[in-house]
Amino acid sequence: MKCEEIFEALSEYIDEEITIQKCREIEAHLEHCSNCRIVVDTLKKTVALYHAIPAENVPDEVRLRLHKVIRLENGES
Amino acid sequence: MEVLVPTDTELLERIRKGDSDALELLVSRYEDRVYNLAYRMLGNREDAEDVLQDTFMNVIRSLDSFQGRSSFSTWLYRVAANAALTKLRQRSKREKSESEFLDDVYSVKEQAHAGVKLTDWSANPINQLLNEEAQNQMDKAIDELPEIYRVVFVLRDVEGLPASDVADILGLSVAAVKSRLHRARLYLRNRLSAYFSGEAQAP
Ligand SMILES: [Zn+2]
User: Residues of A9-33 as b/e, b for ≥16 C-beta within 10 angstroms?
Assistant: First the structure.
């Protein structure tokens, strides 16, 4: 496989959504192509970093306003 | 007596009969997820609050049209994603044009072709990389994504939904979700590479 094809398949590769056959081909390529290896490792790390950002919960005052608006809306209907 | 947690469907039935406690319960169940989606899509609290309110207002007003063909959460995410996209379109654009975005996505391929040695910053542990400044950079990078890439990335990689659900929510094929996701990730990787390798070189 060429770098070109590898490049397009990297997300499916890190999400483990490809066939075993294709996975083996990619891994064989990665063994001797350091740039593709770096792209896959840093891509994986990028996804992991975004996963690791703590979720933004509704601030208390926003929650209060939301429930107030909902009660008003519901009272009208 | 055992206390059963009501399902979404049970709550919806109670809401249709005018039970306002059931409505509050259903909103409480999903408000954090909707807010997080909105916050990551819009990048600030005021817009996120507007999207949160718009989402639940739209949900309440169109409850009668919810047929239950998809799950309630899929339907809710669809309403929320649309509210976020509407808000995004109302404000002045910060994102890149699609052609600029794609040029950037594929710049790494050209670099690799030209024999440039890429920098590997992936060995650094997440807790070391993820400081406040890095998080700001990551938020800014999301803000640069054209909306069709941004919404897919946020649903899939921030909210953690499976690609098939994202496809259902956005009315896209799974293949389209995957290709947009891949481009969004490549773009963000380029951004983070520039940031982290630049930082690594600093004294
Ligand atoms: Zn290669």
Answer: bbbbbbbeebeeebeebbeebbeeb
Residue B200 pLDDT > 70:
no
Interface of B with A in 71-130 (CB under 8 A): 108-109, 112-113, 116-124, 126, 129-130
Closest chain A residue to B57 measured between Cα atoms?
Answer: A70
pLDDT digits (tens, 9 = 90+) for B94-108: 788 999 999 999 888
| Structure confidence by residue, pLDDT tens digits, B158-171 | 999 999 999 999 99
Does B53 contact A69 at a Cβ distance shorter than 8 Å?
yes
| Domain extent at residue A48 | 3-73
Cα B82 to Cα A18, B28, B68, B76, B156: the distances in Å are: 31, 20, 19, 10, 16
Domain boundaries in chain B?
Answer: 8-90, 98-196
In angstroms, what is the span from residue B117 Cα to ligand 1's centroid? 12
Residues of B whose CB is below 8 A from A26: none
Pick among 3.20.20.140, 1.10.10.10, 2.40.50.100, 3.30.310.170: CATH of B98-196: 1.10.10.10
Q: ipTM exceeding 0.95?
A: no
Q: Which of residues 14-33 of B touch A (CB under 8 A)?
A: 20, 23-24, 27, 31-32
